[in-house]
Amino acid sequence: MIAGIIAGDFLFFHCQKLEWWLLMPLYACSVLFLSASYYFKRYARRWLFGISASLCFFVLGIHTVSGRLQQTSYAFSETKSVYRAIIMEKPKAKEQYLLCRAYLLENRDSLSVVYPRKHILLYIQKDSISGCLRRGDEVLFSTRLSPPRNNGNPGEFDYARYLTHKAVSGIGFVISGNWKITATNIHYSLMHTALECRDNIVLLYDKLGFQGDELAVLSALTIGYQEELSEEIRESYSVSGASHVLSLSGLHFAL
């Protein structure tokens, strides 16, 4: 099944048309060998069941990963549109923008309303009200969304593939004045509550005097929050062979 997952991932990003031409014959062969293993139960034909089972798991791996990745695909409008979305994570401050992971609820135009139900990344330009954005807020904004794409530079990091694996369907830049908060704290769930508790713990550490790398390592060890870990810390732990320490959960740390 692992081989099928790897093959499905490769086929999705490089040759989706070949994927279905390959999937159907493999599925037919697995059914054929499985049927043959049922009728030929002699010891000398025991390899038929092994081949059929391996093919079944291989096809299942391709189908599973392809279906999961296909869920991120969406044909966004080529022009600027009006969208409604919910901020799913705490906005991250960049130099000129706030990076927000959002869940797209509606795509509105002059003729209809479409409900994409996809995850997106929004870069919202900083202004006097951008600091009011919180996890769980509903926003109405106007921009042009597009699927993740690479810059095309040789040897560059495959950022589009990375975002697709993170279930991100689109990216958009929203300039100041082209968005507004329509509702606050409307998205409550168990995950939302857990993330709020995590943020409160990080804030408590900050009030206790932990700053910089100390705060980052303490947060990673106790509550699994690794967003603030610098590349230098990650590399130093990796070189020393202790990178697994940063993956310890708060429960393991307490024990």
From TrEMBL:
Keyword list, A-Z: Cell membrane, Membrane, Transmembrane, Transmembrane helix
Short name of one Pfam family: DUF4131
Protein's membrane topology: Multi-pass membrane protein
Keyword check for Membrane: yes
Residue ranges constituting the ComEC/Rec2-related protein domain according to the UniProt record: 221-255
Record domain DUF4131: where: 18-174
Location of the protein in the cell: Cell membrane
Membrane-spanning segments: 20-40, 47-65
InterPro entries linked: ComEC_N, Competence_DNA_uptake, DUF4131
Keyword Isomerase: no
GO cellular component: plasma membrane
Protein name stated in the entry: ComEC/Rec2-related protein domain-containing protein
Taxonomic source organism: termite gut metagenome
